[in-house]
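Structure, all three chains, one model.
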Amino acid sequence: MTTRPYPFTKLPFGGDWNPEQWERPVWNEDVQLFEHAGIDLLSVNIFAWTALQPAEDTYDFTRLDEVLALLESRGLRACLGTGTAAIPAWMATAFPDVMRVDEQGRQHRFGGRHNACPNSPTYRRFAPALAGQLAKRYAGRDVVALWHVSNEYGGACYCPRCEGAFRVWLRERYGTLEALNHAWNAAFWSQTITAWDEIIAPNELSVQGGERTTAVQGLTLDYQRFMSDALLGAYRLEVDAIRAEIPDAVITTNLMGTYRPLDYRAWAPHLDVIAWDSYPSPQDTPAAIALRHTLMRSLKGGQPFMLMEQTPSQQNWQAYNALKRPGVMRLQSWQAVAHGADAVMFFQMRRSVGACEKFHGAVMEHHGRTDTRVFREVAQLGAELKALGSATLGARTPARVAVWFDWPAWWAVENSSGPTAALHYLREVTALYTAFHSQGYAVDLVGPDSDLSPYGVVASTLLYLLPTGAAEKLTAFVEGGGMFLAGLMSGVADESDRVFPGGPPGPLKELLGVWVEEVDALPPGETNGVVFQGGLSGTHDCTLLFEQLRVEDAEVLGAYAQDFYAGSPVLTRRRAGEGQAWKLGTSLDAAGLRTLTRALCDEAGVRPLVPELPAGLEVTQRDGDGGSFLFVLNHTAQEQRLDVPGLTGTDVLNGEAVDGTVTLPPHGVRIVRRDAAGATA
Amino acid sequence: MTTRPYPFTKLPFGGDWNPEQWERPVWNEDVQLFEHAGIDLLSVNIFAWTALQPAEDTYDFTRLDEVLALLESRGLRACLGTGTAAIPAWMATAFPDVMRVDEQGRQHRFGGRHNACPNSPTYRRFAPALAGQLAKRYAGRDVVALWHVSNEYGGACYCPRCEGAFRVWLRERYGTLEALNHAWNAAFWSQTITAWDEIIAPNELSVQGGERTTAVQGLTLDYQRFMSDALLGAYRLEVDAIRAEIPDAVITTNLMGTYRPLDYRAWAPHLDVIAWDSYPSPQDTPAAIALRHTLMRSLKGGQPFMLMEQTPSQQNWQAYNALKRPGVMRLQSWQAVAHGADAVMFFQMRRSVGACEKFHGAVMEHHGRTDTRVFREVAQLGAELKALGSATLGARTPARVAVWFDWPAWWAVENSSGPTAALHYLREVTALYTAFHSQGYAVDLVGPDSDLSPYGVVASTLLYLLPTGAAEKLTAFVEGGGMFLAGLMSGVADESDRVFPGGPPGPLKELLGVWVEEVDALPPGETNGVVFQGGLSGTHDCTLLFEQLRVEDAEVLGAYAQDFYAGSPVLTRRRAGEGQAWKLGTSLDAAGLRTLTRALCDEAGVRPLVPELPAGLEVTQRDGDGGSFLFVLNHTAQEQRLDVPGLTGTDVLNGEAVDGTVTLPPHGVRIVRRDAAGATA
Amino acid sequence: MTTRPYPFTKLPFGGDWNPEQWERPVWNEDVQLFEHAGIDLLSVNIFAWTALQPAEDTYDFTRLDEVLALLESRGLRACLGTGTAAIPAWMATAFPDVMRVDEQGRQHRFGGRHNACPNSPTYRRFAPALAGQLAKRYAGRDVVALWHVSNEYGGACYCPRCEGAFRVWLRERYGTLEALNHAWNAAFWSQTITAWDEIIAPNELSVQGGERTTAVQGLTLDYQRFMSDALLGAYRLEVDAIRAEIPDAVITTNLMGTYRPLDYRAWAPHLDVIAWDSYPSPQDTPAAIALRHTLMRSLKGGQPFMLMEQTPSQQNWQAYNALKRPGVMRLQSWQAVAHGADAVMFFQMRRSVGACEKFHGAVMEHHGRTDTRVFREVAQLGAELKALGSATLGARTPARVAVWFDWPAWWAVENSSGPTAALHYLREVTALYTAFHSQGYAVDLVGPDSDLSPYGVVASTLLYLLPTGAAEKLTAFVEGGGMFLAGLMSGVADESDRVFPGGPPGPLKELLGVWVEEVDALPPGETNGVVFQGGLSGTHDCTLLFEQLRVEDAEVLGAYAQDFYAGSPVLTRRRAGEGQAWKLGTSLDAAGLRTLTRALCDEAGVRPLVPELPAGLEVTQRDGDGGSFLFVLNHTAQEQRLDVPGLTGTDVLNGEAVDGTVTLPPHGVRIVRRDAAGATA
């Protein structure tokens, strides 16, 4: 699979535009405002199915023709939606199979979006047909910069057609029922399948007792894989229909960051460019947002991505939709660029006047005025991006630290019953990522198929599900000189969520030199302590789970502080080849994780981007044809100063020279293009 | 539509009596106790459908004949239920369409009450047939004082028959699908309807994600209107059946105060007298209860109402069913009268021995004794009411302050997604009502169709949905000298929940002289402050939502105290004609609302009923043929004293003369008939 | 019904073994570890239906033959499951009626366990057929020590077949619809049934609004009885099939302690020996666990029982699955024996590698090693049990105090709406039990059919539902010299949950000499006080419900401390015959209950097993052919000392002589075989 070249020579700025909700005079106002704000790329036609195909045998492209002509006439370009993200009413009525059956077993009817059954013959016939019609009609039109298939794929269906497709999928995966029953340990509770047709989709009418409760983990895990594949299959049908008309079309769809149901690693090869929608909650830390950008960047091995949606002001679907404070929209936009974004886009240009997103912020609010805080901030950012031009386009974000992130591990560890209901994959991985990131290390996220050779440190937690070959790969990494950290609940189960013979850490046991005798689980609020030793020092709180490690061949670098396992090992290290394999048996607090991760980096000779990073500041680096850029972001409401000995360069936003020190206003951003001699990694 | 004259010459006292649950000897005990307690009106036959019609073609009125004869023989009168409030088992079995489909799309089966589908052909045939039979049988019988159709209408149905009726209703409302799609902004998410039969009832199988979550607000709002109308239609079928036999029958049904699903304003013209059931929770403030009485009184423009049900002792369906403390039942009964009740009724005469209300209090508890606290309190009240006679009957409660209350606004603002999930219509309106009421102002509740001419002040909050003509009406009110307050989120959307062009406050923008640039939403617990200025003084907490007002033509009377909008306006006033239009952009605390509402009244020259009202006291006034009565209620457990300079009159409960001062025991009540010179308003 | 003799001459030790999940070499490892740990009884074949019957017409016992042969060859014995606890996939597919319809009315499909509809013709055909095949095949094999039918019966079904069977069950219970309608007070809300076929199972599609909310208590209560009977009926079909082949087979199933849905008292006669699974949550007090053992022991009048399952280390289905601390598994095992267990069994021998119990602890963890804390503790216990031999087998636990425990009362009081949602039967009964138990009294649990003659004290709370004859029985008990305590909400309703004429305490009114005028309910956190008097002293907090007692013929021993009923009676005593009848009208705190219960015992001349029991210690006594044993258990993590003047004997665990004092290490256990002179009761 080849990836098409990025169709822009300047970082595009824009977002969703829904002219179908407005009269023609409003269109004209809008294009003027686009010019005013430096907006040059519009996502259109995202939810237009009924408009384009008002009946089974009727297509009508009149309005879309006009929309594209208007954009073209102003020198604007389109990210053209295929419009298939919500099923038309006529289709739901005439072909009820197109609607999903939910996790409670209920057949849904017309209404809402993200509601197509991916195995519905109706959907699989009509959706690519529409995409093909669009491609045929607009082939060769430069106004169409790229294609945006459907919208925010997600959810799941449990209908009879999905169930049938699941059986076929399983037969391809396992070949025989004997293999399937073994994988699922189906002898347990007599869950043995004796004919393929006996397999039932895992919802509340069969094995599920809720989203995180199942009687048969292997079945549920396979359905999660299957449904991710099924939605990908639906996406690919549309891609194929477009490609048939426009072989070199640039095609994508908008992903959703740390979205659990879809294994985006499996999706990535089928997108020409990764695009994603960033909607942080007011509670999210900057590091949590950074992790999502990093994850999206990692999907195609570090290739830059598009920030396809963000709100300019506020959301509507959080419980309490606070405004982004002055400067924060700009700051978060530059944060995306800092982590590899080559586009900055909003949802949406103009607030809709009715239905469920009418309180979602927009560049143009309901009042339709431009003499406002939000519009001014958008226009300022537009001007800055125009000034930046192509400087950062295509630039990479070199990193020598990698944190493990894997969808099947996420699914499996949260499907399990026990040892604790308080276990959340994302929380633990985010804590680990934050420990590196908050100290100024450039970090990537990697998974089972990643090339580990660029990294000095590979750190993991909840590496619960260990795919075939992963242990060998990690062993080679260590023996080649890498520092590897295995955290809590590592090496527990194989790809079918079967516990490895001999128990955790399974195939990592030899590498780590320890095994896990027991795992204690205590309620939130009950803590133990980790007493560092062997070169590390300090005592730090730990919570959640407490593994009892039995050391066979490793140094002890930390011991429990209390309870009946006081003094027993919780952090160990084994030297292997040129590298080291570390094992941590609990959930350590932030300060402890910072100490631990810095020690790993020191052992690996990995240095942070800056020697000392004050709290609330973030640094990243992008290197490309346009130079090497140090991004410094101030996530606090106070002025900040950062010393970077040896740094010389020019701030590309204000043109000022920088020499060793960067000062930032509240929520400020500095982008320093390094002088030729100043690049580091 | 004409309203029949009130069929009583003395304020009736009584309640629900269910002889069908008891043997004949108990009936005789009961009627003796009625006499003992001064009870003279009994609601009977409320849940008697199966007894009256044990099979499709069989009616049996034997027992009801006996019940009425017994009442008649004792000089008691009946509020005669039509008995249709619960579907008989035989009907549910033979005609399953009579049972509802719920918000989860589940077809219900026999069991419980309030379970009839209002569009079921079966129900619409059998219910009025029974009502007609009853009317035919008991026409001309003086023992039947009034008719009580069904019971506590409520809930909703989502069955295919309702769906079909909804399509007809929509076609009548909109005429064309184009109009409907525009009203619902259906281009959003491709929700466009291309044929009437594609319209789906909004439940969890279509657009609802729960009671307050919908994908299409316009659809959901219309279904709320439709279902209120559908239940009203079912009520009217029974009314018509009775009227056909007894043209001058006095007919009503028991409403439920601030009951969200039914737009009682649309119901009111079809009831001869408003009747309602008051079941405050132990957490309700006296003002919250007062608001409900006021709302019920407002339904027919101030006409007195019946307190149709209350518990003499305790409820059973609250989480914790505390006893009403000694004196509280009496106090709450007089509170109802103080606000316009011309009847005081209980649920129920005798505790049932089984099924789900067996722990609901009654005049006669399970022990069946009269030497009890509860019975004594009931009998004391009965004696007081007898002594009062007809004095207050028909008396009005003059008020010069009105607070806006509108069901469609309530529905719409709580259907919306964003800006905050913490927004509750009733809480905000109650806070505003309480600010006036707690200072001794007589208050009415008004809506879009109300005559505003009696009022000096009209205050609103969450006037979110502004019906056609409302802005003109309010403008005329102001220009004619009125004080108008528009609170938080005013003038946002039209009757279809489409945001007005130009944004909030929509058609009120000219009148108020401000527009809303943005609305911030913060989690509960995060506050800002309002710094009063321009004649008002003090600083008060505000919470929930924080509108950024842009002033075009208004004085600023308050500014935010902190955050990035510190110093920007939050309270404004524009003088227009003889009056003033005030705008408040946040949810102000109780003390702040008191200051603000007093300022409005002062500007309008509206005076409270008493100069200074101590906390925990309540005052109202009723004026009628029997005189002008000042009601003073002590909601505290301490003795209280109230000074009312110039008040002279006689306490009608104890016959004592009053001159300028009223003292009240704990939970005490004083009703002062003013001397001819003492009346004020 | 006769009970078969206990088939063991030494207290058996073992648990669930699932060789079907493992390869043959693992079987051989396992049997060696059994020997190493002193394990001699294995529960096998519990979930083997699909394996034994892979298709409708095919049985295959090959593997089970091998399993039993292997056990036999090692001198081990089997508790042989009939394997019917989970429906095979082929059966669910071919005969969908075998799967349940749930409380939401949803037909379930294949998956999980405990999923058979007890009235399914398919299930009722296939399950006993399999049991019969097993019995025929293994009749006369000594390796089969006892039969274990299905597993942990529970849950409920609401399918049309259950509904039909329910109608038959009701017709047998009531004879006529008139009787049924009277029992359910069906005139309320017109719930009257006019034909048997109109009766609907009580789920969310009919009268239920959730598990504890019903419109018709009588209907729901009868369905609870019916479903308990229906599951018992399914059990009995299998028992009969086994008996047909092996008339003297010892047959049981594993119960679940205080499991609400099944009335184990009705089940007990059909089990040859009571067996139960003990899975305390980390929050359970030792007394709460003791209550469950006591309840299980009480089911067959004090006959010893089997502890059929417990975890050696941790569970998986609690929210937070803490490890049992060192010594706690042993302590809880001996606690079971102390209360009458004649077997100590685990779930499970080896942790399963997949599916939903893979994190449930086992004797052999996933690592498969024996050099572990858990295995060592198991093996130590195995050795101790071997040393104990038959000494305690069959020994009884004499008690002179009884606490009332009755499933229908539990159901009924929690089905009710009001007076408080905070009312939990188990919490109140446990508090009462704990008051006796924590002072060292030997306690039994009794119900309506129990022989009360052994007891000096019978104490109750929430004796809400009073079966026919219970009042007479309790009156006779008192008149014969017993002390009877009626607690909160006693004597409220009859067996159909109809309130007794005259109200609470119904038929107990004469015995107690008081009646209940009102019951106040306050939210959790609001308290009153009980001021003891008349020989008792002190003031103690009370909560939840506050009955207003009216005394007709009783002494007042306690009065309320505050609120409008301050000073009014809350604790009374009436002397009747040789005994006394006490009445308590609230939920008293732990210290108050201790004072009250000690007073009752003192009046009855009942002495505790030891004069003064320190907090955290537990004592019980078992007397049998092997002697009289005093069990002393230390539930604290500190060393403890207990003085028992006059106690002389030998600790059977360590062989040391005991003379007046017992010292215990943390979590320690002492079992003192009394010298011939030392026995007390």
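The first strand of chain B starts at residue 13 and ends at 16.
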